[in-house]
């Protein structure tokens, strides 16, 4: 797994928590860079053990982890991701779930330990750009927050001479670190529409455990905006791979409607490193 073929392309590393994060989150951006001949690597920290699987699938498969790993392979191939790297932790579920306490639960691991694993992979992959979740993990999923924190630590750790790499690899310092952010204008619009039709935006999602109002209140600056319209069909095809998680339907309904209203098909990123200059203009390229 740790043999990366020699390549002269630019390299992008995306560090996330579950199968489907790569597609529903920043799938358009990953597909766009893959199309531009950037080597795209994905670290997925868990196998999505706690995803709700429709009963019709459950009869035919051994476990949610197995199915969701296959779904991720399918999506990665369509998006053009060159290589997948698993950390083999376990999905922790939403706050308060029993699975939070599982000994392999990602959110229960010491952040230093996960950071060392990510730092090692950074030395293997040698990316110019690293992207991960924002500090509230998009919608406050404990695994998203855990992998965000580990990635921030790993980003500098990989470049430090006193981090002793398990394979003795030399230090490597990537140039840029970004956090993928959810458009709060989009979210506020969703909250507005939900209120209009009498739904509770404090309890959103399949499991009614996402508080959209509290997420909409946290604003992160946008430093890079990626227009992925040239590959929107690629992203859409990848969503179909995650059939057990709602697949392409996740993009229909409200989300689809609001995306159209706001002229969607953009991903937004906050620049964490190097520290953005004051008054820095919004850029269109993560490598710029
Ligand atoms: Zn996730």
The main sheet comes to: 7 strands, mixed
Integer count of domains: 1
What CATH calls the topology is Rossmann fold
| Name of the CATH architecture | 3-Layer(aba) Sandwich
Question: Could you describe the 3D structure shown?
Answer:
The chain has a single domain, classed as 3-Layer(aba) Sandwich (Rossmann fold), CATH 3.40.50.10320. It has helices at residues 21-25, 27-35, 55-58, 64-79, 111-125, 137-140, 142-157, 184-196, 212-216, 232-241, 253-261, and strands at residues 11-16, 39-46, 83-89, 129-133, 176-181, 224-227, 266-273. Helix 4 packs antiparallel against helix 10 (232-241). By secondary structure, it is α/β, with parallel strands linked by helices. The radius of gyration is 18 Å and the shape is globular. Zinc ion binds next to loops.
């Amino acid at each position: 797994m740790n043999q990366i073929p020699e390549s002269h392309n630019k390299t992008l590393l995306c560090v996330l928590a579950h199968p489907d994060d790569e597609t529903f989150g920043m799938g358009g951006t990953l597909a766009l860079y893959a199309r531009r001949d950037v080597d795209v690597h994905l670290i997925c920290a868990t196998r999505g053990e706690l995803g709700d699987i429709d009963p019709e699938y459950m009869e035919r498969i051994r476990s949610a982890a197995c199915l969701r790993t296959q779904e991720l392979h399918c999506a990665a191939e369509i998006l053009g991701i060159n290589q997948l790297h698993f950390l083999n932790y376990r999905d922790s579920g939403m706050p308060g779930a029993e699975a939070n306490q599982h000994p392999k639960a990602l959110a229960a691991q010491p952040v230093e330990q996960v950071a060392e694993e990510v730092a090692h992979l950074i030395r293997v992959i040698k990316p110019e750009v690293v992207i991960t979740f924002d500090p509230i993990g998009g919608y406050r999923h404990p695994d998203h927050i855990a992998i965000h924190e580990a990635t921030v630590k790993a980003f500098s750790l990989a470049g430090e001479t006193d981090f002793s790499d398990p394979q003795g690899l030399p230090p490597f310092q990537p140039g840029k670190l970004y956090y993928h952010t959810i458009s709060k204008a989009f979210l506020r619009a969703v909250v507005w529409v939900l209120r209009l039709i009498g739904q509770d935006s404090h309890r959103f999602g399949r499991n009614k455990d996402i508080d959209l109002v509290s997420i909409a209140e946290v604003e992160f600056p946008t430093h890079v905006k990626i227009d992925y319209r040239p590959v929107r069909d690629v992203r859409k095809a990848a969503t179909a791979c995650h059939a057990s998680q709602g697949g392409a339907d996740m993009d229909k309904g409200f989300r689809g409607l609001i995306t159209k209203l706001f002229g969607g098909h953009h991903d937004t990123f906050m620049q964490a490193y190097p520290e953005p200059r004051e008054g820095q203009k919004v850029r269109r390229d993560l490598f710029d």
